[in-house]
Batch of 2 targets.
Target 1
Amino acid sequence: MRNFNEHNITEAVLARLNGTSSPRTKEISSALVQHLHAFVREVRPSQDEWQQAITFLTRTGQICSDTRQEFILLSDALGVSMLVDAINHEFPGGATETTVLGPFYVADAPEVLSGENIAKPEDGPLMLIEGRVLDTSGEPVAGAIVDVWHADADGYYDVQKEAKSYSGRGRVRTDAQGNFWLWGSVPAAYPIPADGPVGEMLGVQGRHPYRPAHVHFMIAAEDCETLVTHLFLASSDYLDSDVVFGVKDSLIEPVIEVRPGKTPSGADVEATVPAMRREFVLAPVRHQRE
Ligand code: BEZ
Ligand code: FE
């Protein structure tokens, strides 16, 4: 076939996908072609505008490094990450809600024991982070691996700093009652990295780049779906305008004041300290798409 024009090119491209071996890949490729062509028909970009789009995506790739993932940021800022999250996490009632992973997760964070301090003195005032992990029938989940990471009082993650050492990040296991506790620091609200193409996009769209203050959790346990979530500080700014659309009411927690003594998760506290406390409920594992 030859002589393609605005009216027949979509069908021609779709026909070329007929030999795609995997049905799922064919489904995805066909939908991509259809939606992309529909977008171009609707927007009718000039050659110059299309070149700007290509340059934007090229620069988005070029700024990526081991510690910066501008494509995830783009997906986050366009609400796509939360859409994918919503589609994939229609968990049964009672399970803790999920939110976006974000680009600052580190797969091999240091393993710590309950009670250890994951913050550095310069990270800001200490905060107790404690929780209990349960399944949907209310039974404690022992031996769950709880990854915790958060920004410091200036709104920076360890991986964004010059000193390439871990802080505000640790991986702890729950005890037989499903409890864990750590010392971290009180995180601040922060702007997502805005010195690249995504920051420029936000500027053009008249949007601020901030996320409300939060602590990230990834909780993995046998026979359970891995939970990726945050706790948002109830006192934070930006709860209603999170740049990545990640806030859910059920994930907002107050920072409480804990007095000296033993806490519900077994922490020994010697002075009055700020704390975040939460029960996390893991959904039972389900079968993945074939
Ligand atoms: C974060 O919370 O770490 C994050 C999420 C999305 C984009 C940037 C940062
Ligand atoms: Fe974060």
Target 2
Amino acid sequence: MHKKEVRFEYLEFSDIYECSETVQKLFNKAVEAMEKAYAPYSGFMVGAALQLDNGQVITGNNQENAAYPSGLCAERVAVFAAKSLYPDAQILHLVIVTSAQNIMRPVSPCGSCRQVLAEYEQLQQKPFKIYLQSANGGLICVEAATDLLPFNFDSELLNT
Ligand code: THU
């Protein structure tokens, strides 16, 4: 038996102005998207914005439904929109924001979103950064989507 370890590093910023201008603009776009979220059931508004390598910025927000499981998280709305419009473009950065005021740490993607993000990252064979911010100003950057989901279900398993 061997003990193995999975570890990853992430960045913590004290201020959004420590990020590049591209990322700052993505934050603004994510906040705009968040304000248009349809979240009447949870009241938890989430916005996402991603930068593609073709220059396009695609946004998304959470879309809920009276049949609760039919809703979708902001980051999946954004990434599915991006991949349906520009299937060959690469994702460079993804920013996720929330309006929740009383949380002490950044909102981070649910397991289903992690699986979806990991697959697109593996498809493009290049990591993309994920920036997460909470309403109280905390801001972190994870350097790869797969960092958030070690041992994700990999599409390559289906081809073996
Ligand atoms: N939600 C997101 O949109 N993204 C996340 O990363 C976490 C959760 C949404 C789903 C649901 O509409 C609401 O937040 C409460 O779970």
